[in-house]
Amino acid sequence: MARKANTDGADSAENAGRLKQIALTYKMTRRTDSKIGLVVAGVGIVTFGVLLAVGFVINHPVYLGILGFVLALLAMAIVFGRRAERAAFGQMEGQPGAAAAVLDRVGRGWTTTPAVAMNRSQDVIHRAVGKAGIVLVGEGNPNRVKVLLAAEKKKMARIVVDVPVHDIIVGNGEGQVPLKKVRTKMLKLPRVLTGPQVTAANDRLRAMGDLMSNMPLPKGPMPKGMRMPRGGKMR
């Protein structure tokens, strides 16, 4: 009995936490998408109404009504999720480290390392490793990012010669990939490596080190007056 009560309590806490998260997501989304409530409600009402009407036509209003209610909830969840994701990308776009946040959401099978290279202007390169190979994602001034990408590729060429390297520059200009399409771009890359090969590539890259592990950065905000080392790259 005690175990069952503990389980019920845990489930209730989990459900409450999920509802709280949904409410928080709605509030954040509504800041940039004021019509989200009307759109989601409209999708639910239309979906339920159409199926209920079909139910009356075929003399099965109860069955189609239940089905319509379930499908309405599903449609509302899908629309809400897409609009919330679009709003989140809109809020992140142009913010430092936005690409790193996107890489964290790519999905299973990818190992991401933020800020493997950076210059004094705070242009930054992030790295992701998966079955498609190595993906370097740069954000900042396109011309300076290209220099950073070239330097990072040259350095990795000595370590992972048998692994394909792709590069993405985040932005809305020619030859760039918008922030909201970075994940889609990565998932469309052909998978050419096996699991053991991905593990081996990660091990070699970790042995090479990266910006965050090589620099003795203090925790918390960067202290005032701290300067970037000369030479462009923080290495």
Task: Explain the layout of strands and helices.
Elements: H1 2-30, H2 36-57, H3 61-92, H4 98-103, E1 111-118, E2 124-130, E3 133-139, H5 142-157, E4 165-169, H6 182-187, H7 195-208, H8 211-214
Parallel strand pairs: 3-4
Antiparallel strand pairs: 1-2, 2-3
Helix pairs in contact: 1-3, 2-3
Mean pLDDT: 79
Number of strands: 4
- Major sheet, described briefly? 4 strands, mixed
Strand proportion, as a percent range, falls in 5-15%
SSE pattern: HHHHEEEHEHHH
Query: How much helicity do the residues have?
Result: 40-55%
Radius of gyration: 24 Å
- State the end-to-end CA separation: 59 Å
Task: Walk me through the structure.
With 235 residues, this protein is an alpha+beta fold. Helix content is 55%, strand content 11%. The protein contains eight helices and four strands. The chain has a four-stranded mixed β-sheet with strand order 1-2-3-4. The longest helix has 32 residues, at 61-92.
Task: Briefly say what this structure is.
By secondary structure, the protein is α+β, with helices and mostly antiparallel strands.
